[in-house]
Amino acid sequence: MYIPKYSEVHDLKLIKSFVEEYSFATLLSQTSEGISANHYPFLIDQEGEDLVLWTHLALGNPQWKSLSQTMKALVIFTGPHSYISPVYYKDPLNVPTWSYTAVHATCACEVVKDSQVTKDLMKRLVNHYERKNGTNWNYELPEDFHEQLLKAIVWLKLRVTSVEAKFKLSQNRDKEDYLGVIEEFSKRTSENDKDLLRYMKLTMPEKMK
């Protein structure tokens, strides 16, 4: 990913928090027929100094078979983004741009074969998103029905070998323009725009304060 210095993010705590918040991501891998790209919900863990991602695929999805051979993948997490108009700047003789947030995780992959681990992961995944969704569906299924469901999916463990984070949020502008963008987004009410404003404040350069 092309990342100018001003938009680089190295704070691993912030990166991990971002991944947890925007955990529905794109998994890309190389196949014999080209590049495969699919979209899955992820869980994230810390194992020692390593970040580990977990996700599951349908058994009929050929992507897991290619991953079991190449063992390499890229996971792309994207967060809030927005069009930025020159009218937010002190001098409108500028051009539009786009503010956005993204994390790319390069991973080494393995297929999870332990049935108890897959059961625990599935329950954990459902419970995580039930909480996030504000619902409380009880993940208690008849054992035979549960086994049938688990046989229809494949779980992957993806150990992150490198991570890149880019939060392109007007840090390259002068202070007056930067604060002009913040002022504009402070008026907005959509969740996307409020989240983008939050990340602008979290990554605000010292020169803008």
Q: What this model shows, in words?
A:
The protein has about 210 residues and is an alpha+beta fold. Helix content is about 35%, strand content about 35%. It has a 7-stranded antiparallel sheet. A hairpin with a 2-residue loop joins strand 1 and strand 2. The chain is elongated, with a radius of gyration of 20 Å. It starts with 11 loop residues before the first helix and ends in a 7-residue tail after the last helix. The model has no long low-confidence stretch (mean pLDDT about 95).
Q: What portion of the residues fall into strands of 2 or more residues? A: 35-45%
Question: Helix content range of the residues, please?
Answer: 25-40%
What class do helices, strands and sheet pairing give?
alpha+beta
How far apart are the termini?
Answer: 28 Å
C-alpha Rg (nearest Å): 20 Å
Runs in which pLDDT lies below 50 for 5 or more consecutive residues are: none
- What order do the helices and strands follow? HEEEEHEEHHEHH
The count of β-strands is 7
Overall geometry: elongated
pLDDT averaged over residues:
93
What is the count of DSSP helices, taking H or I runs of 4+ residues? 6
Largest β-sheet summary: 7 strands, antiparallel
Q: Looking across the biggest beta sheet, what order are the strands in?
A: 2-1-5-6-7-4-3
